[in-house]
């Protein structure tokens, strides 16, 4: 029986083993976010609980990455959600594409740094659209008043192409 199957069955020994194996690595990784260590531990524990619950629900049956990578992805999302809640980050994580593959980003790099670096590589018009929509939280109608597009549908299509281009740049590294 694989470790993932044991996790799915909530095997106590497997849960304890995975918890302890990944704890220090996650806390070291997450320390760069300058969050209180006790809060980081809470985030790790919440991420681990989500991992076990997702495994039990069968959501990891087709997992293509390592369990550690999946766990770190959950933890990263929780860290960013905390930043969003505290308004200390300017990016709305929930507006990233649903199929955004967190595990493709090296765990030693901060997602915000990667996004900023890749945003600087796309065209000026795409940069403006994505910045206004995701960073400034403007609606398409508001952006339409600032940028010269024929219609909301044209702007929506352009935003979609820009987002696709950004995703390709991120995945390309």
Written account of the structure:
The chain is mainly alpha-helical and 173 residues long. It folds into 2 domains: 87 residues, Rna Polymerase Sigma Factor, Chain: A; 62 residues, Orthogonal Bundle (Arc Repressor Mutant, subunit A), CATH 1.10.10. About 13% of the residues have low confidence. It comes from Lacihabitans lacunae. InterPro entries: RNA_pol_sigma-70_dom (IPR014284), RNA_pol_sigma70_r2 (IPR007627), RNA_pol_sigma_r2 (IPR013325), RNA_pol_sigma_r3/r4-like (IPR013324), WH-like_DNA-bd_sf (IPR036388). This is RNA polymerase sigma factor. It holds the Pfam family Sigma70_r2.
Summarize the model shown.
The chain has helices at residues 3-8, 12-30, 37-56, 67-86, 111-119, 124-135, 140-146, 152-172. The chain is an all-alpha fold. Helix 2 (12-30) packs across helix 3 and helix 2 (12-30) crosses helix 4 (67-86).
Output the radius of gyration: 19 Å
Strand residue percentage: under 5%
Unreliable stretches covering 5 or more consecutive residues = 87-109
Number of individual domains: 2
Number of separate helices: 8
Element pattern in H and E:
HHHHHHHH
What is the tally of beta strands? 0
Overall pLDDT score: 79
The name of the CATH topology of the largest domain is: Rna Polymerase Sigma Factor, Chain: A
- N- and C-termini, Cα separation: 35 Å
What helical percentage do the residues reach? Answer: 55-70%
CATH architecture of the largest domain: Orthogonal Bundle
Helix/strand-derived category reads mainly alpha
The CATH top-level class label of the largest domain = Mainly Alpha
Report on the biggest sheet. none
Shape: elongated
InterPro entries: RNA_pol_sigma-70_dom (IPR014284), RNA_pol_sigma70_r2 (IPR007627), RNA_pol_sigma_r2 (IPR013325), RNA_pol_sigma_r3/r4-like (IPR013324), WH-like_DNA-bd_sf (IPR036388)
Pfam family, one: Sigma70_r2
Protein name: RNA polymerase sigma factor
Domain RNA polymerase sigma-70 region: 18-86
């Amino acid at each position: 029986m694989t470790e993932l199957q044991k996790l799915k069955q909530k095997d106590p020994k497997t849960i304890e083993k995975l918890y302890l194996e990944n704890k220090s690595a996650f806390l070291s990784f997450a320390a760069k976010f300058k969050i209180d260590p006790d809060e980081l531990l809470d985030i790790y524990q919440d991420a681990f609980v989500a991992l076990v619950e997702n495994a039990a629900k069968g959501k990891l049956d087709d997992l293509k990455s390592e369990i550690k990578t999946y766990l770190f992805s959950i933890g990263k999302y929780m860290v960013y959600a905390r930043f969003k809640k505290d308004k200390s980050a300017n990016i709305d994580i929930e507006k990233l594409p649903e199929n955004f593959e967190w595990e493709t980003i090296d765990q030693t790099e901060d997602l915000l740094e990667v996004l900023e670096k890749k945003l600087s590589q796309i065209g000026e018009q795409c940069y403006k659209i994505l910045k206004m929509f995701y960073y400034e939280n403007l609606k398409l109608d508001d952006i339409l008043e600032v940028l010269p597009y024929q219609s909301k549908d044209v702007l929506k299509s352009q935003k979609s192409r820009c987002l696709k281009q950004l995703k390709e740049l991120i995945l390309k590294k």
